[in-house]
Amino acid sequence: MNKLHRYFLKRLFYSIFVLIGLSIVIFVIARVVPGDPARMALGPRAPQFAVDALREEMHLNNNLPTQYFYWVKGVATGDLGKSLVTKRNVTEDIKEFLPATLELVALSAVFVIMFSILFGALAARHKDKWIDSLIRVMAYTGVAMPSFVLAVLFLLFFGYIWPVIPVLGRLSAGLYAPPTFTGLYTIDSLLVGDLEVFWDALKHLLLPALALAVGPLFQEARIVRSSMTDNMTKDYLASAVAFGMPDRVVMGKYLLKPSMIPAVSVMGLDIAAMMGNAFLVEVIFNWPGISRFGMEAMLHKDLNAISAVIVVFGLIFVLVNILVDLIVAYLDPRIRLGGGV
Amino acid sequence: MENYLKRYRGLTLIGLLAISLVLVLAGCGGGGEQDKAPGADGGGERIIRISEANVPNIDPGVGSDYSDSIALANIYDTLVFPNHDGTTGPLLAKDWEASDDGLVWTFNLRDDVKFHNGDELTAEDVVFSVERMLALGEGYSYLFTDVLKEVKALDTYQVQFTLEKPFGPFLSTLVRMCVLNKDQVMENIQDGPYGDMGDYGKEWLITNDAGSGPYMVEELKKQEYLRGVKFEDYWGGWDEDAPEAFEILGTTSPSTIRTLMTRKELEITDQWQTKEALAALNDLPGVEINGAFTGTILNIMFNTKKAPTDDIHFRRALSYVFDYATVAEQLFPGSRKARGPISESLPGFNEDLQPLERNLEKAKEELAKSKYADKLDEYSVEAMWMTEVPDEEKVALLLQANAEELGINVDVVKVPWLSYVDQVAAMETTPHAGLVFVSPHYNEAGSILEPRYHSRSTGTWEQGEWLQDPDIDAAIDDAIGTIDTEERLAKYAAIQEQIIELAPTIWSFDQAEERAYQASYIHWPAAEKIKNGEPATAVMGYMYYFREFKVYPDKK
User: Fold this and answer.
1) Does A46 contact B138 at a Cβ distance shorter than 8 Å?
2) Which among B11, B222, B417 has the least Cβ separation from residue A121?
């Protein structure tokens, strides 16, 4: 086991404690907010016996540590408890809503990665020229404009000024969701060879994914540009050229690759953050995602759903962080070869 | 270095491909089929799509909010049906009779009713549905828990209810007792906390129905929509222009709603659109706004046990100084001045009452009689409004401004709803004034009077007054225990006068539930009645009984 492997195992090990800490914090916070969740779930006029029964079922009459114990015990067996809003097991909700957001964020991530590199590299190449200035203005606008504003603009524009693309939901009326393998309609429809559903699902994804991607995309583009312009003046690049290395190698290996390191770190976190930030975009595009579900859960003090959603988000953050570290290690030989860890 | 960057064509190529992808996706959209979204045009389908705050819970033992009530009214049948004129008519029950003491009610059922799966509906199904609702204790069960003693099937088409005590509005409440197919539910029970009944079919009924109503569930997607399609064999038959399907969309986002209405992909909006959003919708071709009075009043509840609002003259002073006209005409145009604790739209409203008016002179006179008149600087009135209902702030600020004219200091406080519910649980922590919208449980004045002013309901969010008046309690008990409808309604009228005399509340305005709808191609019976000045049912959900609607796709 080399140094790199040990480093990642250590990160993985620490992540377990991060998740436990996160679950405890959210578990406590959710329960100190005023209001009886059982009463909330059953309604203000529900008979007391029903409220008492639900409190008992949810272990709400026990102290916090005991409640947490029951929750952890449930999680260990795959039972995240019952949602007070959807009235079913939260596991079912997560299974249904998480893929919708993952699919949305995945396409956003594709946009972020592709366009941030493209715009960043173009701006660096044309440093201080009009293209650089144009991209800078676009970047300032893109970063300053919240995703929900863009979502509303998209909705209004493509909703009735230029209605060339679907604006709401995951699929058009008359089409049915493909059999569930991953929960991602685009993937599942391809797996069963249903191209009509694939195409329709992809078109539904486009606008919300773009709305979500624009902010991070331009932020990362600025980082790529800045990093590339810095590296252009480095001696190692001049050496590579002097050694007569092919242009493609110099560009890909010696300029772009090291220039991506700072961008990748931010990109990873931004993409993970989209999971939570997608809430308003999901509401506007009527997208049945986990971010919107999480917000609804908070408004209704749906304890089990809140805990589950936050832990899922936490888990995704942890995994993305580790993935980012892996990519950075790939890009940075000091880490990969053990020198920089 | 510039040289290398100029050769950086691979990246540019990727970018161009990405841009092309976006353009191709958009370009291939080209109108037509791809424009359909959840709730989308369905070609020439006769469909009613309505937005609501959430996708409904369609289990009749669980659902009770607005969205749920609309769904249940369309998917399930009940023994009786709420007519637009406020009376209760037959549905599954052909006729019925009550014993002289009002404790035993016997219903004769139709013998031609089929459930959606083809099973016959019998008295056993009614008994099962009642027992299930009471066992679950959720949804609308609160209407029956303290009332019902026993329910039994006398024969295949006859069912008998025995009550714990006389309850005059019993018939009205039965519009909330949906009848489920016992056999179908029992085939789908899973493990659960109800003994032999397992989970009583709760899990299955989240996304399926076991009803006999005019529509049956085709698809329910949480967070998206419920779609119901016409039950061709419905015993009541069909008009040829009746909707073939309905959808309840779980969104109230104004931009989404506006887009859908513009594209004629939504027929009726939710009631939570702002005045500004409704005004914009009203400008769309063919769209009109329907304002329906459903019995909801915004109450400013005075804590009658806490100084200074414990003083009747102090409360009356505030009631007289309040500017009712500004609220009804400027803050909430389309609504109307309240005339007391009961909305004009509810049976049992006292017709002799006049709209409440501001009267500064009387306010000053009353304040002078108050024991706090000389020490106003020692007290301030805490007026709480709910974070979740921003419109309430305007009314609270108006109260503050009005009270200032009398030298009364009002502190306007914003609280989350759940905090308010916690605070009103105890008299000491209940604020001097709480601004709360209250709607009727069933279609009678008693459904407001009992939860609002009977001592049984102190400590709940519905009564921040802590009135605890034995005379009022006795009068309410007497009224709701009266079986004869006319006599009962007369008693309700008298109680309203008694309550107004005590000034426990400022009834700030009678709220109109406003929704935009596509008047050019749908016929909405309740909206037409309201337009013609006729009464329309105020029972939550039944204004959207889609079987009575008509849709003309060719007029889109």
Assistant:
1) yes
2) B11
Q: How many distinct structural domains can be found in chain B?
A: 3
- Cα A51 from Cα A31, distance rounded (Å): 17
Is B376 within a domain? yes
Instruction: Say if B542 falls within a structural domain.
Output: yes
Specify the pLDDT at position B19.
Answer: 55
Pick B37's closest partner by Cβ from A50, A88, A173. A173
Residues of A in contact with B27 (CB under 8 A): 164
Q: Is the pLDDT reported for residue B33 higher than 60?
A: no
pLDDT tens by residue, B450-492? 999 999 889 888 899 999 999 999 999 999 999 999 999 999 9
For residue A118, the chain B residues in CB contact (below 8 A) are 11-12, 14-15, 18
Domain span at residue B366 reads 292-512
Amino acid at B512: A
Mapped onto helix, strand or coil, the DSSP state of residue B548 is helix
d(CA A306, CA A94): 11
The two structure tokens encoding residue A275: 């999971």
B23 touches chain A (CB under 8 A): no
Give the dihedral sign, CA B106/B183/B222/A95.
Answer: positive
- Is it the case that residue B122 has pLDDT exceeding 90? yes
E strands present in B274-337: 287-302
Question: Does B387 lie in the same domain as B359?
Answer: yes
Closest CB to A168: pick one of B8, B27, B38.
B38
Question: Are residues B202 and B222 located together in one domain of the fold?
Answer: no
On the question of pLDDT at B543 being above 70, the answer is yes
- Report chain B residues whose CB lies below 8 A from the CB of A125: 2, 5-6, 8
pLDDT at residue A40 tops 80 = no
Instruction: Give the H/E segment covering residue B428.
Output: none
Nearest CA to B520 among B553, B481, B542? B553
Domain boundaries, chain A: 90-336
Report yes or no: B71 and B63 within 8 Å, Cβ to Cβ: yes
Q: What CATH number matches the domain at A90-336, 1.10.3300.10, 3.10.20.90, 1.10.3720.10, 3.30.70.370?
A: 1.10.3720.10
Q: For testing the chain B interface, which of A32, A36, A45 should be mutated: the one with the most B CBs within 10 Å?
A: A45
How many other C-beta atoms are found inside a 10 Å radius of the C-beta of residue A322?
A: 15
